Amino acid sequence: MVLAVAAAVLCAYIAPAAAGSGIPEVKAYLNGIDAHSILAPSTLFVKIFGSIFGVAAGFVVGKEGPMVHTGACIANLLGQGGSRKYRLTWRWLRYFKNDRDRRDLITCGAAAGVAAAFRAPVGGVLFALEEAASWWRSALLWRTFFTTAVVAVVLRSFIEFCRSGRCGLFGQGGLIMFDVNSAPAAYSTRDLLAVIFLGVIGGILGSLYNYMVDKVLRTYSIINERGPLFKVLLVISISFLTSCCSYGLPWILQCIPCPAHSEEECPTIGRSGSYKNFQCPPNHYNDLASLFLTTNDDAIRSLFSSSSEKEFQISTLLVFFVAIYFLGIVTYGIAIPSGLFIPVILAGASYGRLVGTFLDPLSGLDAGLFALLGAASFLGGTMRMTVSLCVILLELTNNLLMLPLVMLVLLISKTVADSFNKGVYDQIVEMKGLPYMEAHAEPYMRNLVAGDAVSGPLITFSGVEKVGNILCALKITRHNGFPVINEPPFSEAPELCGLVLRSHLLVLLKGKKFTKQRIMTGPEIVRSFKAHEFAKPGSGKGLKLEDLDIKDDEMEMFVDLHPITNMSPYTVLESTSLAKAAVLFRGLGLRHLCVVPKTPGRPPIVGILTRHDFMPEHVLGLYPHLHSHK
Amino acid sequence: MVLAVAAAVLCAYIAPAAAGSGIPEVKAYLNGIDAHSILAPSTLFVKIFGSIFGVAAGFVVGKEGPMVHTGACIANLLGQGGSRKYRLTWRWLRYFKNDRDRRDLITCGAAAGVAAAFRAPVGGVLFALEEAASWWRSALLWRTFFTTAVVAVVLRSFIEFCRSGRCGLFGQGGLIMFDVNSAPAAYSTRDLLAVIFLGVIGGILGSLYNYMVDKVLRTYSIINERGPLFKVLLVISISFLTSCCSYGLPWILQCIPCPAHSEEECPTIGRSGSYKNFQCPPNHYNDLASLFLTTNDDAIRSLFSSSSEKEFQISTLLVFFVAIYFLGIVTYGIAIPSGLFIPVILAGASYGRLVGTFLDPLSGLDAGLFALLGAASFLGGTMRMTVSLCVILLELTNNLLMLPLVMLVLLISKTVADSFNKGVYDQIVEMKGLPYMEAHAEPYMRNLVAGDAVSGPLITFSGVEKVGNILCALKITRHNGFPVINEPPFSEAPELCGLVLRSHLLVLLKGKKFTKQRIMTGPEIVRSFKAHEFAKPGSGKGLKLEDLDIKDDEMEMFVDLHPITNMSPYTVLESTSLAKAAVLFRGLGLRHLCVVPKTPGRPPIVGILTRHDFMPEHVLGLYPHLHSHK
């Protein structure tokens, strides 16, 4: 409980953003959502130590999600050249000052996190591709691949260094964490039917897991909103509940005599080992206690081990499965960094082993392999990934011959679960209210045109604009992009010149290159700025409006916006279908999309579409009658 | 030579498109190039039988590339609902009548080809992702995954069925073709240096391979252009050369006494086996003959086997490496279906084994594992893939512990080779003159705007157009898309209504829904057509202009184009940077991009950009001075 409180205090008081898995946040960031604090240095600090404390406290949580988030945070810190707030800056790390490069780097960080957590370098690449990233290009592929190759080499040398046991439990199992190669992977048609059954039930249980996680999260958010103290209290009560299960449930089960010829000591003497004596007489062990009172990794290894090595009672597996399933659900959402992979794998493995033990007389497939397939079915049912989970499981267990079965189970459970609800990470993103852009447009958008979604007053600047007008516009709105319109005498008729960003305007105003007359100063004024001044600043560290010090007489002067205007913004005609505009917006990863008029004789721009204008809440708020078409 | 002639005759006389690997063609198709005959049923037929004859004739060619092409052809045949020409049609397969779905299906087909060829289902998915597909979306990921899962299950049941040896050599090695698990995968820092050296040299040799393949292809194309007979003669001479090498070179090497305790018979009695007697005295074998006079798969298996199982003389490896390296180069490009994977793996494995045998006194790594790494370095050096090759090699050899080293070698050889030239498939696409759109825009495009690239006369239609005008436009141009412009009285001023496709115009004209007056008939006229009439036809099977039978009095009548006009085509302003237009075009997979004017008072459309307008040849042809900026 001390460890639990430590994790909770860190999380509640220092960085609330560090609570939970972190994968949904990374996913949202990579989709283009620049939410402050998701990848801040304080989040990184709390994520690392909170995760250590949380896992050590014995919660049913994993370290995988937090490691992905940690990897992304480190990548972000490197990408913005260190942290100015904490006085850690590196000059040579200034090459990532734009959205795309920074996204690439963070994708690599997420891949490295998975690669390190599961010791699965290829799985890490595929996870980053399938789950994390919203845009993909071939350069990114070999970059993530390079990152995880480095992770693999570093991991391997650490494991080599720790082989003699001088690093405690680290490195157990070598590069392959849960080797299941000892059991023969032969199966017949009858086993195939059993596996399909396993996949269907696994899919249903997985989607039920998602449903309940969602409900529990909504309940917790009410408690958590009341203040940090309530967060800590919630963590304490869940910690108490977990302890009750771990130390209480084993009492209700029978003791088992030690196996005659076991390689391991029985009963276990030290802290690690899978034959816990618990309340049993000498030479006996309690198999439920052996699952509860050990590390999660060891519990999974026990469940995956072949039936010849270890046998579990059916009652043990049933109690363990039910306990872990519900503990996993109630633990996610409390104020500690908590991964979802380990709870799901644990629950799935015990479910699979349970089915395998039941079917033992009928099936030739080993119960340990059933446990592996059960874990696959749960993972497919909750997270809805396919290739990446398949490769991660392959790299975890080193059993290539099971590949066809694992693929089958993943596909079945994903398909079954998809008919009920969304994947758990998508659900969490939605629940957090992050404006996530889906890859496809919603069907009702086909009935609207781009002009319909434009809302709010449009503020435009002239090519050479009065300083006062710019300051006023920056003050009264929170827009990040403003259209620039060329008017006579700079053009024959009003025409769209381009788009100017708030951050660039602030830099320009700070430089005070003003003129008394309305004249174009030409591109040489930007030469007085350094390129990095216009670079995208680190999270929340850019120039603020308050940093400007414009005098009253300067307010009446003019400034030429042409040098900092993006002269070729992407545009759509106002009559373009909103669905097509959404595809364009998402496909090219835009932040602003200009809507231009179709007929002449009107102002040269109708409005600007941003991410929020494509959100269902916004569109359906404007056109409530479309709800029925939804 | 009989088999070689059979393959060549099929290829030269029936389907010239079936020659070569097929992967570049599939890659080009998936990039959006609708070249006729790439995926035609005749190509499929020749690809299957030509590949069988070619491999059986003993050429240094693989079956992997042709299997990818075969998979894509089958997918295409299914996607267009069978072949009308050969009277094989399926009504229920009509759901793929648009570009995107058909592309998805063909991607799945390509993935299935790799999965079947290497028995590597996950490798197949990744190959399709990394090398074949130009667009990627998450639905495609699980679809290819599903396809390869089916392939894995089917393959496994065939292998199970053939276990007793009733299918000849099929199924040898089970699901894992070249198991290298017998050698221990322990390595030290010194081995790491050796591996880096291997990777660098492998990258150089790989790029040299590409360079020479390119030169040879250009030479052969001069010969092949002279007619099918010359193609066959070329095949015969290469076949003769291959035979000379296979039967001639082993004579120059020494015989080796049979190993004392071998599991295999020595010397080999039947046709398969790795201890060929050749010219040697009894109880001796010729190891070079054992590599040449066996299947490619068996040769690779021998090279990958651990040094304790089998030893090769350094002279044998050297001769075999040089022979295979050059035979592989001169064989690609002759008129037979010929994959590149097997020649590259063979050359790479013998190179790696050679290095491994040299370094044996210094390195703790087995020579068989060096052969694996050598194959990886050659594959990385020629094909420049990363994750997919890594997973394919993993699934081929079932050695997860070598993963970090394989990743390292692939990255090193790819990086080294990338500094010399392009990947072999990209090179072939370029040499064939296919208008392949790269994912990134060329640097010189940043200095141009979209309006600069528009060329040629623009032909537009009015919203309600005279039939004669349409027919005339269809006759004199080969454009596939025409802008439709609304004019008074249908709108106040001329405005862009949308884009109409040639194929849709032909269907509409064929339906003869004409009116005497210039009036809008409204959307109900399309109801008299069936949806599938407007569907994208199979390759080269759509309506032709000659199929229309328009009478003279009908020429003066009018037809309303609004119902078949795409009302929201993607547009760019004429002042948009050409680089950005290229990104838009490629990113969304367009075929036509409308360029609209920026200033009012001009026609509402400036021109249409198509794939060809973005090709370097076209742009640099218009603006030759940009050559220097290139």
TrEMBL record, chains A, B:
<keyword id="KW-0406">Ion transport</keyword>
<keyword id="KW-0129">CBS domain</keyword>
<comment type="similarity">
    <text>Belongs to the chloride channel (TC 2.A.49) family.</text>
</comment>
<dbReference type="Pfam" id="PF00654">
    <property type="entry name" value="Voltage_CLC"/>
</dbReference>
<keyword id="KW-0407">Ion channel</keyword>
<keyword id="KW-1133">Transmembrane helix</keyword>
<feature type="transmembrane region" description="Helical">
    <location>
        <begin position="44"/>
        <end position="62"/>
    </location>
</feature>
<feature type="domain" description="CBS">
    <location>
        <begin position="564"/>
        <end position="628"/>
    </location>
</feature>
<dbReference type="InterPro" id="IPR002251">
    <property type="entry name" value="Cl_channel_pln"/>
</dbReference>
<feature type="transmembrane region" description="Helical">
    <location>
        <begin position="232"/>
        <end position="253"/>
    </location>
</feature>
<dbReference type="InterPro" id="IPR051280">
    <property type="entry name" value="Cl-channel/antiporter"/>
</dbReference>
<dbReference type="InterPro" id="IPR001807">
    <property type="entry name" value="ClC"/>
</dbReference>
<feature type="transmembrane region" description="Helical">
    <location>
        <begin position="140"/>
        <end position="159"/>
    </location>
</feature>
<dbReference type="Pfam" id="PF00571">
    <property type="entry name" value="CBS"/>
</dbReference>
<keyword id="KW-0851">Voltage-gated channel</keyword>
<keyword id="KW-0869">Chloride channel</keyword>
<feature type="transmembrane region" description="Helical">
    <location>
        <begin position="314"/>
        <end position="334"/>
    </location>
</feature>
<keyword id="KW-0677">Repeat</keyword>
<keyword id="KW-0472">Membrane</keyword>
<dbReference type="InterPro" id="IPR000644">
    <property type="entry name" value="CBS_dom"/>
</dbReference>
<protein>
    <recommendedName>
        <fullName>Chloride channel protein</fullName>
    </recommendedName>
</protein>
<keyword id="KW-0868">Chloride</keyword>
<dbReference type="InterPro" id="IPR046342">
    <property type="entry name" value="CBS_dom_sf"/>
</dbReference>
<dbReference type="InterPro" id="IPR014743">
    <property type="entry name" value="Cl-channel_core"/>
</dbReference>
<keyword id="KW-0732">Signal</keyword>
<keyword id="KW-0813">Transport</keyword>
<feature type="transmembrane region" description="Helical">
    <location>
        <begin position="105"/>
        <end position="128"/>
    </location>
</feature>
<feature type="signal peptide">
    <location>
        <begin position="1"/>
        <end position="19"/>
    </location>
</feature>
<keyword id="KW-0812">Transmembrane</keyword>
<feature type="transmembrane region" description="Helical">
    <location>
        <begin position="192"/>
        <end position="212"/>
    </location>
</feature>
